[in-house]
Amino acid sequence: MRLNSLVLGILAFWYFGWNYLVVPAVFNERVVFEVHRGEPLDSILQRLHERDLLDHPRLDAWVLRILHKDRELKAGRYLLIRGLPDYYTLRTLLRGSELGTRVTLQEGLTLRDIARVLARDIGVDSQAFLQAAHDSALIRKFFEEYELPGPLPPSLEGFLFPDTYYLPRGVDPEIALEILFRGFVRKVRPLLPRMDSLGISLKDAITLASIVQKEAQWRREMPIIASVYWNRLRRGMRLEADPTVLYALGRHKQRVTYRDLQVDSPYNTYRVRGLPPGPICSPGLDAIRAVLYPAETPYLYFVARPDGTHQFSRTYAEHTRAIREIRRLRAAMAAERAREQATPSGFSADTLEVPQHSGTPESLQAEPPGD
């Protein structure tokens, strides 16, 4: 027993003491690494070795097992420093101290929205973040490192997956981008074969999904909205999607005007045919799946109802009738609200609220498509 204790003491002094004393002169390259929940020790150490974060994975595994620490590496995302002795790296994973601050990104956020969230929550330099997200060399590096098919997008707009992340405060913008990009890769990679079968590139699939994301208020309608856009694309019709106009304008508006439709931009799908150059937001998995598995419909048009759902139509004549009906309904609802607001304060009346709609306003749908 005493011999075993002596051996363990010598081992601990040699392994941990030596690692403390021997520190390389340069260890400033930070690497994002994720330990998956339930992942075997050997798999973790081998992946660390492959990314040049461990020098002796077999020795490390033996030491961890001898010390009964082999089941204590904590799942999560870490910022690790390449070039440090193995002990420092493993200590970080054993402590689980690098998980960072919880940051949640909602579906439909743009790059600018994401930059604002990260600046607010963890102090990321928003301008540096946006600049890095448009860096063509960094985009190429990400696509090549994670083996994603081209063509490359003009920015990382749409390729930062909406999810909950744990990020260190003040994290380098490029590291933050890689973490969010890896979230995208993890969710979307299983869908790449479906994109191949449809003959649509990853960039175009995400671009179309981002438009669906912005148009739909109700998840159940996403496959139908996607079918409308697929039908229009197959017929060579312009998409005429208001969210693309708002993206081209660079600002949010409650209603899009006829003047707005004239904005000169490759993102304005009222003026250009086909898809815009890249996504207009970060779509969620539901919107991406809706594009890859759209409903089979004959619809070419849709207009928003007051509750945020849509009336879908096959022909322009049907569409204009739907617009007139919905306008009458909105007018009646507005008159009802006006009467309720004029009701004496002592009288209790329920207020009918009209949800905001993120899709094409009916005021613009009356314009015949320029096809």
Summary?
With 371 residues, this protein is mainly alpha-helical.
State the shape: elongated
Order of helices and strands: HEHHEHEHHHEHHHHHHEEHH
Kindly estimate the percentage of residues that lie in beta strands according to DSSP.
Answer: 5-15%
> Structural class given helices, strands, pairing?
mainly alpha
Helix content: 40-55%
Number of helical stretches of at least 4 residues: 15
Offer a few descriptive terms:
371 residues; mainly alpha; Dna Ligase, domain 1; 3 domains; two-stranded antiparallel ribbon; 15 helices; elongated; disordered C terminus
Structure description:
It is a single chain. The chain is mainly α and 371 residues long. The protein folds into three domains: 77 residues, 2-Layer Sandwich (Dna Ligase, domain 1), CATH 3.30.1490; 73 residues, no CATH class; 128 residues, no CATH class. 47% of the residues lie in helices and 8% in strands. The strands form three sheets. It has a two-stranded antiparallel ribbon with strand order 1-2. Strands 3-4 form a two-stranded antiparallel sheet. Strands 5-6 form a two-stranded antiparallel ribbon. β5 and β6 form a beta hairpin. α2 packs antiparallel against α3 and α10 crosses α11. The longest helix has 26 residues. The chain is elongated and about 75 Å long. The C terminus is likely disordered.
Topology:
Blueprint lengths: L1 H20 L7 E7 L5 H10 L6 H10 L9 E7 L3 H10 L5 E4 L6 H12 L3 H8 L2 H10 L18 E4 L5 H16 L3 H7 L3 H14 L6 H13 L7 H8 L35 H8 L8 E4 L5 E4 L2 H26 L20 H4 L6
Antiparallel strand pairs: 1-2, 3-4, 5-6
Helix pairs in contact: 2-3, 5-6, 6-8, 10-11, 10-13, 11-13
